[in-house]
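BUG: 3D viewer hangs when loading the predicted structure for this chain

Environment: internal workstation, default settings.
Expected: structure renders.
Actual: progress bar stalls at 90%.

Input used:
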Amino acid sequence: MKRFAFPVLVACVLLIGQAAHVGRSAADEGMWLFNGPPKRILKEKYGFEPTAEWLEHLQKSSVRFNSGGSGSFVSSEGLVMTNHHVGADSLQKLSSAGRDYLRGGFHAKTRQEELKCPDLELNVLLGIEDVTDRVNAAVKPGMSPAEAFRARLAAMNTIEQESAQKTGLRSDVITLYQGGQYHLYRFKKYTDIRLVFAPEQAIAFFGGDPDNFEFPRYDLDVCFFRVYEDGRPAKVPHFLRWSRRGPAEGELVFVSGHPGRTDRLNTVAHLEFLRDVVFPSVLGRIMRREVLLRTFSERNPENARRAQDDLFTYQNSRKARLGMFAGLLDPVLMNQKRSEESRLRAAVAARPELARECGSAWDEVRAALAAWRNIYRDHVLLEAGAAFHSELFFIARTLVRLADETAKPNAERLREFRESNLDSLRHALFSPAPIYDDLEIVKLADSLTMLAEMMGADSELVKKVLSGQSPQRRAAELVQRSRLRDVSQRKKLAEGKQAAIQASDDPMIQLARLVDEPARRVRKIYEEKVEEPQRQAYAKIARARFAIFGKDQYPDATFTLRLAFGQVKGYREGAEQIPAWTTIGGTYRHAETHAFKEPFALPKTWLQRKDRLDLTTPMNFVFTADIIGGNSGSPVVNRQGELVGIVFDGNIHSLVWDFVYNAEQGRAIAVHSAAIQEALRKIYDAGELADELGR
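Structure tokens produced before the viewer hung:
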């Protein structure tokens, strides 16, 4: 979901009493596992009981984008619908000077005109297996955190490898409840993905920054792709039927998507660490990069085209995190969290056996956070790579580590280089997407400057990285002399393994090798002193919650498939009642109110063909389902499993949903199914595509 937050949260934090609490979820709250759906809540509140067949069909109609969003199959011919902003990465990579699909849109009128995306991967969840006991059994009593981490890593890598070899499916062990459970997810993977249709950015992102995280909204934020197998459109047995009517006010609807990350189960100490350390650091880097990219873009139109997706991403992230940060700074929210934690700890203390087993968990989290604070700067700069903001650098690092890690047994490798993930890793590594030297130099020079600022110009590592040059000259040298923009060179280095890497004179490879040892060192500290102790502590907290409140609870989001539900419902903003939906006619009125000036300037197609449209057609609508970033592109379906809309955002009151849910004013926002049909047929003359939807 586009997390277009902004400055201050007002009414949303006054309603924390509606929020996620220590016990069972309230109202329409929850990002539920498909193997643990909220059947009791749905039956009690809505009189609806989803069958196993209903759940399986929705699960297997849902799609995950490796670029960070969700989607769904909407025809038996492999047609996939998602948001325009989820497809933006592919639209950018398929564009070139004089051919800007991101801004101008795209329509393949025949299958032959569909454009193959350079590195897009889609995943469809086929099955889930609980492997908690096997993962936990690998960690023996008396093991140190370092030994426990290695044992757990080996178990997870081995489980995935065995599954992939047995089934041929992508296999990922997912950590749930921050270590309370481990589930093996098996995915059907598609890598031949082709662009079918995208509207102009002006209507997909109509209203721009002023309307972000607001409602009413008037966006046609949709994009269509098609998955291919063996050179032909994939035949998929599960896809969503299309509702032309769409939802009615008060109607129960469902969201099936991949929420990225929430922190609702974090301890108060952990939330305070996010507030005091993580968010200020992240916001500083985001704002720095946003200014850099805006300045680069303003130099000429081609620069603007090259940087537009990156700039959009940082603008998006800034607004999201500012709103989330505002929530962490609000004493009402934090006091609610403290109260919840106190009640849970008191309940644990009241049970002697549970207290012996789990009572120390909160102090253990706090101790791990202290260790994290000590290495936070170096971990961000070196291992997370904030000091090396360059696609070429990350290609180089991947090649260096690929050679090192694949020389080890699978059980001992870093998670991203486990055997079951290598095909996906190579698919991204060998992407033919364009890399622009001028943009690379600007980004890398700024991040090298930040490295010197944060570690000090006299740091031995900084001196070695800059090699006696200014950040600008060093960045230019690294980018211009590197041959890694050539995919054949990447493949040659990957095939040559460690010998080829060690013999390479490519400056990016040499830089990646230079910083790899200190980066690995700080990663090792993080894994053994922060990640593993936290995992063990949160597993205790999860056991305590299960013991006290039962297992009718949902875990924090993990960018894996979840089911959410809610009602189509407006809300009150001060004295004004905000209706549940907008109309296509309202889109024109909104543009006219702003004199048709950017970002309220409608595309020419919409101005020229207005008289074709039924202006009463619903455009966007709001509903109470529990969503978060990563849900962008998620299908919204009714009780019959018909698609009635597609999630693309949330209103400003949904920002605190990262930490706590409320349904008084917080709303998800979706594009209405009728608006999509109306626009395809009457604006874009895409009747053949409209006919295929749900067929």
